[in-house]
Structure formats: C-alpha cells, structure tokens
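#lab-general

N.A. 3:47 PM
ok so I finally got the sequence cleaned up, no stray characters, all 544 residues accounted for. can someone with queue access submit it? mine expired

B.Y. 3:52 PM
send it over

N.A. 3:53 PM
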Amino acid sequence: MAENLIAEPVPKGDQSKIMQTHSSVVSNARSISSMLSGKRPMLLLLMASALATLPVWLPSYPPMTDLPQHAAQVTLLRSLQDPGFQFSNLFEINWFTPYLVGYLPIYVLTPAVGVVTACKIVVALSLAALPLSTALLMRETGADPYWAFLSIPAMYGFSYYWGFLNFLVAVPIGMVVLWLVIRGIGTTGTANTWWLALLLNLLFFCHALICGFFVIVSVSYILSEVNIRRVALRTLVPFVSVVPLALIWINKTSSHPAVHRSIRWDLGWERFSGFVPRLLGVEPHPNYLFVAAALFAIPKLAGARLNRRVSVWMPLAVCTIVILFAPDNIYGTDFVFQRFTLFMLPFFLMGVSQREPACTVSREQRLYHLFAMILVAALTIATCFRTLAYDRAASGFDGALRLMEPNQRVLSMAIDRDTNFTISPPFLQFAAWYSAKKGGLVEPSSAFWHVELVRYKPDRVPKVRERDFEWHPREFSWSKYDGQNYRYFLVSNVSDEGSTLFRNSTCPVRLIYSSNRWWLYEQDRKCYQQKLRENDSSRSTQSG
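B.Y. 4:20 PM
back already:
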C-alpha cells in the first residue's frame, strides 16, 4: 500500500515537455494580459460612452428641436411608396441630398422598432462615437487616450439640443477622416488614399458643412506636417474627389426658392459669451465657466504635456477661427458657426501628450483622474435630470396623438415653445411627431428646404412655410394661411386661445383635447371634406 503512494520519477524528456508547456502557458497569459491592459482604457471609454447616452433614452421623445421634422421626413419617404397616400402630389424625392446617410439608417430600422426608437438608436450611436473617435485621434497623435472621456460632456451641446441629426451623424465620420489623414502621412501605399476618398464622398452625403469643415482641417494638417511639395500634393488628391459632387449639388439647388442668397455674420461678443453654453448645452451661468475650464485644465494639472508639433494643433486652430469668424447664416442655413463648438474639446485633447515613460502615477495625479471621472459623471447625471424635467413638460402630447386619425393634414402652432430645461425651443417642431408616427402631414414642414430628402414640388409649396409662420403663430389668419386645408390644429400654449385664433374660420373649429400645454382643435369633418372636394374640383378645372 505504501509503495503505491510513492510517485514514480518523471523521465527527463517528459520534464522538458512539461517545462515548455508551462513556459508557453505563461507567455500566452502574459500576452493576453498585455493585450487586455492595452485595450482596457478603450473598453472603459466604450462603457462610459454607452452609459452617457442615457439622456437620449429616458424621455418619450428626445429634447431635440429639429428631430421631429427629421423623423417626419423618413415617414414621408415611406408614405410616398404608398399609392393611396393622399398628399403624394405635393412632394418630390430629392435623392441627391447631403442628408441622405443620416436618414437611411432610421428608414431601415423603423419597421422593426418604430420611428422614435430608430431615431434614438441613431442619435445614441452618433453621440457615443464622439469620445471613441476622439480616443482614436489621440492615439494617433501620441496623446493619452485616457482623457478622451473628458469629451463626453460635449455630446449634449448646441447641436444636440437643436436636433441637428445629420450633423451629429457626420461628426464621427469626419473624425475618422482626420484619423486617416494623420495615419496616412508618410505612407507610400494607395489603400489609405482610396479609403480617404470614399469616406470624404460619404461624408458629403452626411452633411455638406461637416464635409467642407474636415476638408479644411485635413488640408491644414497636411500642409503643416508635410514639407516635401510632391508628397503634399499626393496626399491632397482625395480631397479633390469631393469637389465635383459639391459643384453639381450647388448647381442643382441654387435655383430652389428656399435658397436665400445672403450671408449673415453677426460678429459680436456673443461668440465669446455663448461658448460655454453651446459647449455644454446649458443656460449661461458663472458656475459653468469653472466647469468648462476644468475640462480643459485637468489633463495638464494631472501632469500631461502639451504636444509641441504645430500640425497637431491645426484642427483646434481652424475650429477656433470658424467659431470666431464664420457666418451665422449661409444661404438660409442657420446656426453655422455655433454648431462647431462641439469639436473644441476633442481637438484640444488631441494635443494632450502622454507623460514621460519614467514617471510614475502619483497620488495627486490619481486624485485628478478621480475628480475628472466624478465631474463627467455629475454633468451626465445633471443632463438626465434636465431631460426628465423636460419630459414632464412635454407630457400630454400622446393623449392628443391618440385622438387624431392617421394620415391627416395638421397645422402646428407652437406659441409656447420653450422650457427652462433646454437651451433650444424643444416644442417648436414637436407636432411633427404626429407625421412621423401616424403619417399624414404637419405644417410648417421642413420639406420646404432645398436640402431635404422629401421636398414640396415648386408649385405646391403651402402658404404656411417654415420660419415665416412657425415663429409667429399668433399671426394665423384663416384666409391668409388656407385654414380650410387642415383637419387638426395642434397648439402648444399655456392657455386656450382658440376663440381668437379661429375667429374668422369658414368652418366650425372645436376644442377636442387639452392637457398640460397641448390644445387639440378639430375642424368640422363634413365642412372640411366639402372644402377639400371644392379645392380638388377647382384644381382640376385649372389643370384642364
């Protein structure tokens, strides 16, 4: 029995195999550990970016002013495929639009999840991609990608609250374009050139302003980085590929009635004083000056160095020049320079170099890391609370929606369009969610604008147009704005003004619903249908 307990000696050959196996396991474990430790910052950033999209998912409808109109565009596109759609004679499809890429994912997702959820998915992915693409750029410039999460507060800035959907979708694509430019400097292959040309043309169909901006940023980087003229010319070739697209689009749209051939600059103190509110999406307050200063200063205080290469700072320099001197309005496009505030933090973080390898992380530096995480988390939580407060202010809309029959024509009157919880008027276009969810048509509609995917035909533009009426709904006149064309009138207001708004109506209009700020009026159905028949008969006679 005792002999059986004595272990037999292992042969020398087997010992060698065991040692090799052990060495191989240890080596693989170390390589896996090294790989995971290298990816750990990106994994943490991915988790933080995903959690930071919570304000998009909390409310029934995101507090983005223009988003309902974008959602309505997607539903209009789908409705135009239906032969029974009663408003199809008003519209044309404009496939050659810089808004195409932003709309198509929502169009594809809508049958599966609904248009509101589809919008939330696209918006959330676009926002989460901002810090991730910032980290990508930071790795390429030698910056410390750990600090990329400081760009998270920029997710909920001016462009988000105003609902510039296609602009937000284009942002991470533009960042990847710049990453390819930086990565491609010094390479001799053509693969990077082809990818860059492809992405630039894709970027044009996301948003023309973003495309032009990143062309300028990228060319500035190249010219400041490359000294050899021939190499510089080769690297600039992809940017030429997008020029024919831009020229064709300008030629096709220059004659559209919505194009105002004017440029407004508005050079004033607001460009400085409004920087922090636009960056963080908050109302002006002295406390936010310290918050914004902390976001820029923390990496330096924690021991990071600023990159000495001029080329690394060119994107930030171009962005600063745009914010200070670019127009406020270009040919009818509002808020031009304001929206580019979003890039200031990411472009600044590109220049935050890593500490010297010999340096160890001190206790003080760890405290700065912790403080930065707490600050970003606090700003995200504050955004969540503001979003919930807005959602309460928006309550009651779905009640009106349930009473409205689908595929009707609705006039929106956003008299009370603001809240104390957002920097934009979130209820200005809110009624367009009816068109997005139940079909039909809500006016004023963004289909008036030349850049839209679905546009009014030139001879079918209604008297109620964006900007002419939406900011002055109390000027409504039944005869001036063809009140007989609308089945429903959805008013956002603190009180009932129906007796004043519809005092000259040719058909009876009655209040059928009110809750919170929402007042739903319906035109007498028989009278409404009779007026429609008369209009159709008159139009047929004129056509004949």
